[in-house]
Structures are given as C-alpha cells and as structure tokens.
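Make up an example, fold above all:
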Amino acid sequence: MTKTRRQFLKTTTLAAVALGLTATVPALAQTVDTEKLLKPGPLGDKIVGDENAPVTIVEYASLTCGHCATFHKNTYPDLKKDYVETGKVRFIFREFPLDAVAAAGFMLARCQPQDKYFDTVDIMFEQQRSWAFTENPYQSLLDFSKQIGFTQESFEECLTDQGLLDAINAVKDRGANEFGVNSTPTFFINGEKHSGAMTIEEMGKIIDAHL
C-alpha cells in the first residue's frame, strides 16, 4: 500500500505541477478560429451528436468544478434532448482539469471502454462531493472507481500511466494557450466563447441565433 500511495502521490504531484494555471494567460477575443478549435487532441475528442449539425459546442470542463457539475446536472440533459438528439447541435467535451484530483478523475474516465466515457463523467459530476473533496483522495477515488468497474490493480495501472496524463495535460494546455480558456466551464458555440454554468434558456438563445 505504501508503494501504491507513493505512485499515486507521484502521479498527482506531476499533475499538480503540469496543471498550474498562471495569471498571465492572455485573454483572447470572444471568437476563435473554428478550424483550429475543432482539431482534436492527442487522445481524440469525445463527441455526441450529428457531425453535420449546424451548431458545434465545445466545452472545457474540470471534474472538480462545482459550476461544471451544476451545468451537467441541470442544463446538459435538456441540451442533449432538445438540441443534440434533434440534430441541431454537435457537442464536444474536453478535459481541463484544474487540479490533480480532476486529472486523476479524467484518467479513470479515459481508461473506461470508449462507450462508457460520458456515463462515467456524468456519474462523477453527480457524485462529485463523495470523491472530489475529501481528505484522502487516493482512497476516495479508489472506492469510487470500484463502483464503476475498476479493481485496485486496474485503478493503479490507469493512474500511473504517464502518457495518459501527458495527453490530458496537452488538451488543457492547448485550451489555455491557444483559446484563452482560464475558467471552467468554458463553452465555444460555433467559435464564440462563453463562460459559466449557463442555463438551457441562456444557451438556447445563443444556439437558436445560429440556426
């Protein structure tokens, strides 16, 4: 167990160093280059919706962000029902971990079978307080991971995958450096930047303007 904890601490320490956001990230214009924005990261994008939908939404989120949890619990179900499943919106979700625990959570989601990624993220947001804000993140994440199909062995294997951590960090770094993401959640709706846990009414007005 001591070795396991050391491995976890090493992983999370690396994440903490790599995930430090500086206060000098430049603020970009409210609209970004859509072609550049839609270039996927090293792990590929996680996408739901018709690739030919007239509106594309890119969300940068952190699993330990309370506002992100609020959006995914209160707004996303209606967004999916009213806009994604009707062919109006393609939704792209990208990792932007604000701390080491969020990075570890995203690693677990990426280690799941591909078709379980969004289910895992949804559960993590729903149960955020049970695993994200505890005095023992190792044990909390381990306990949570067992609920979604991990064993201790597969949990440790996932969280000590340096290549996976590097790829998740690359998505975060690119979002910050190229598109001015400095808070979560941040949305790009057909390239227009919007921040905060938007309601379905707020988001719907913006989407409808592009239809």
Summary: Confidence is low (pLDDT under 50) at residues 13-29. The chain has eleven helices and five strands. Residues 162-179 form the longest helix (18 residues). The domain at 2-18+32-209 is CATH 3.40.30.10 (Glutaredoxin).
